[in-house]
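fyi for ur records
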Amino acid sequence: MELISLEEELRNNSYPGRGIVIGRSGDGTKAVAAYFIMGRSENSRNRVFVEDGDGIRTEAFDPAKLSDPNLIIYAPVRVLGNKTIVTNGDQTDTIYEMMDRQQTFEQALRTREFEPDAPNYTPRISGILHVENGTYSYAMSLLKSNRGNPAQCNRYLFSYPECVAGEGRFLHTYQSDGDPLPSFEGEPKPVAIPDEIDAFTDSIWNSLNGDNKVSLFVRFIDIASGQFETRIVNKNQ
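which gave:
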């Protein structure tokens, strides 16, 4: 599978839903993570990303308009030692807590399934970056209903032990807009990753559908030192 342009992929899809990109910068020195959220309803669009320690959380932009916090208020990013966890729901906490008790990323996700938001049954997408002593690897996970049938949860784990410079993977919740929303199909898509955090942030934000985009998080982690830079962009200011 050839590398694709993340910008073109986003421009050609008005509603990929929530998306995770993980990879390595073009110069090979940084571990890269990005997470974005989109929304169609007033409740989903009424959100911002805010920093929470080394991670982030979602919160209501206008608390008076928050009709249902379920499935939209959570911590998308948490850091456990040399591991950075990125997900589209409260499975972030499940992964963090179980890995803190010496369980694995995969073991934690075996306890979870897709979201209970019939008829969409939104997939749970997750990623973990492991940066330690100058080495870097990552994994991603997809939990989804069986072709829209909630009687079965299909669990997929994708492991990337050797990270190629300038390359990453893109995993998102929906194939496209629809009613019900069609779940993501296949393996995470290979995408090109640039050298510089601001250029990467701008390229993602400017490529997302203007009506549906809500918030974006981007982090570059120096593989040698573990130090990181973060960017957060919110449509609601």
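DSSP finds five helices and 13 strands in the chain. thats all i got for now
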